[in-house]
């Protein structure tokens, strides 16, 4: 039963959402939070962005960006008419009406959920919460996190959830560098565990996104996101395994996937690669595996997919060594040029990228390495620790000519594959990036 008092807070919130006087708070201004803040401003809401990283908030306030696909011009656009303010001052939480939490949810060293950032963020909201606030968890996590981890912390504010304080979960579905979908037209799943929280969430996100997809609870919304990521993880593992079989059978897996995808129904193409990367697919399924143990349940598909995907960088290294040795080049005197470090094409994100692992494994074999990625050039070692080998500032003819082989790990559109195949002694292609190169194909091997 809602009381007239709670109706006032809810009505007031809904009215602000509808007439766009609601101030949207975004907590965690990273790959997810910053594009979300951008969308809020585009849809007519003032945004207050929070982060513990002063470097990020200062950059934003100076009109600079730190994310490849968000340009400085976009940030400057967001700052116009004071539409965006970014701060590390959490006392300003009270100024926002809604708070979308977009902080990292990694795995710890034992590959168990590490909710420290989510807990710390929620704790930092508590002293500044007031009646009428809506808290939306966006971070990917296992079903039950919002109710079991976030809500108990929020309760310390002494506000009645569902009457004075509204809480919901809405998973992020960002796909950086995908030209077909923008944050606005990707349907947005929303879930809450009481009617008033659901109404508040629906009013706000209904005013932001072209389509919202309501589900019955926070847990259903949390599980939806995990299902989406498991679906990708398992299918990628399957095609990665088939790649290994195809290599043994002398078949080209990419040719086969492309042929199979002409079936107009019942088949979705997944492509093999040098291993899984990014902040989601290699990590999120294991949030569910961990939670499943509480129910005496073993998530066998996830474990098997994890096993196969983890093996892929080792398979690439084995193919490189086989190729070098097959040409009479001992690994400890071989020179290899690696192209692409980001986990997928046309992005600057190297988190969990298989390239990092592969570089380290190749170094263990004594191979002398140089590497180049036009999207992360100049700062990859700075961000991801000292990588083995020499980072090239540009892809010179000499680098292609003088290395024993060139290994393509990311199929960025910025690479000129004709030139690479023409100049390189041998090209080891893990992505079928050279598919459109018509000549000198005998120089290409797949890994
Ligand atoms: N990157 C993607 O494409 C993607 C897609 C869907 C979902 N997700 C999920 O979204 C969440 C965020 O991912 P991301 O890629 O944006 O991470 P990120 O590391 O790019 O950004 C997180 C931001 O949160 C900040 N932060 C950390 N602790 C904080 C705290 N206590 N208070 C305030 N800010 C804090 C960090 O400084 C950082 O700026 C994760 O749960 C991730 O799984 C990511």
What would you say this structure looks like, in words?
The chain contains 15 helices and 14 strands. The protein is α/β, with parallel strands linked by helices and 447 residues long. The chain has an eight-stranded mixed sheet with strand order 3-2-1-4-5-6-7-8, with helices on both faces. It has a six-stranded parallel sheet with strand order 11-10-9-12-13-14. α12 links the parallel β9 and β10. The chain binds nicotinamide-adenine-dinucleotide (NAD). The site of nicotinamide-adenine-dinucleotide has 26 residues, from α5.
List its traits:
about 40% helix, binds nicotinamide-adenine-dinucleotide, six-stranded parallel sheet, alpha/beta, 15 helices, elongated, eight-stranded mixed sheet, about 450 residues, about 15% strand
């Amino acid at each position: 039963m809602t009381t007239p008092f709670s109706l006032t807070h809810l009505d007031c919130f809904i009215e602000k959402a509808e007439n766009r006087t609601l101030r949207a708070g975004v907590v965690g201004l990273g790959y997810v939070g910053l594009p979300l803040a951008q969308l809020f401003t585009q849809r007519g809401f003032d945004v207050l962005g929070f982060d513990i990283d002063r470097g990020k908030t200062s950059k934003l306030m100076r009109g600079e960006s730190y994310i490849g696909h968000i340009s400085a011009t976009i940030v400057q656009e967001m700052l116009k008419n004071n539409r965006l303010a970014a701060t590390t001052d959490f006392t300003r939480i009270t100024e926002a009406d809604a708070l979308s939490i977009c902080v990292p949810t990694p795995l710890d060293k034992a590959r168990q959920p590490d909710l420290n950032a989510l807990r710390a963020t929620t704790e930092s909201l508590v002293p500044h919460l007031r009646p009428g606030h809506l808290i939306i968890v966006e971070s990917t996590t296992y079903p039950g996190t919002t109710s079991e981890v976030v809500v108990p912390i929020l309760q310390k504010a002494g506000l009645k959830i569902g009457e004075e304080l509204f809480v919901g979960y809405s998973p992020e579905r960002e796909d950086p560098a995908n030209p077909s979908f923008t944050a606005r037209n990707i349907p947005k799943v929303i879930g809450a565990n009481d009617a008033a929280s659901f109404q508040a969430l629906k009013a706000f996100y209904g005013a932001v996104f072209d389509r919202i997809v309501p589900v019955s609870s926070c847990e259903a919304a949390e599980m939806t996101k995990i299902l989406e990521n498991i679906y990708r993880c398992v299918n990628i593992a399957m095609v990665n395994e088939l790649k290994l079989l195809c290599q043994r059978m002398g078949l080209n897996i990419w040719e086969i996937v492309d042929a199979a995808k002409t079936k107009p129904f019942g088949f979705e193409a997944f492509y093999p690669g040098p291993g899984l990367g990014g902040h989601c697919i290699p990590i999120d399924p294991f949030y569910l595996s961990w939670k499943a143990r509480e129910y005496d349940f073993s998530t066998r598909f996830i474990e098997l997919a994890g096993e196969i995907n983890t093996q892929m960088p080792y398979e690439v290294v084995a193919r490189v060594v086989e190729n070098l040795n097959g040409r009479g080049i001992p690994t400890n005197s071989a020179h290899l040029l690696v192209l692409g470090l980001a986990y997928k094409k046309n992005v600057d994100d190297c988190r969990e990228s298989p390239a990092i692992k592969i570089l380290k494994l190749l170094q263990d074999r004594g191979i002398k390495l140089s590497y180049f990625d036009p999207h992360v050039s100049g700062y990859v070692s700075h961000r991801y620790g000292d990588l083995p080998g020499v980072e090239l500032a540009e892809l010179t003819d000499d680098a292609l000519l003088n290395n024993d082989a060139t290994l393509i790990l990311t199929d960025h559109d910025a690479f000129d594959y004709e030139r690479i195949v023409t100049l390189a002694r041998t090209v080891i292609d893990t992505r079928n990036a050279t598919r459109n190169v018509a000549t000198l194909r005998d120089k290409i091997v797949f890994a």
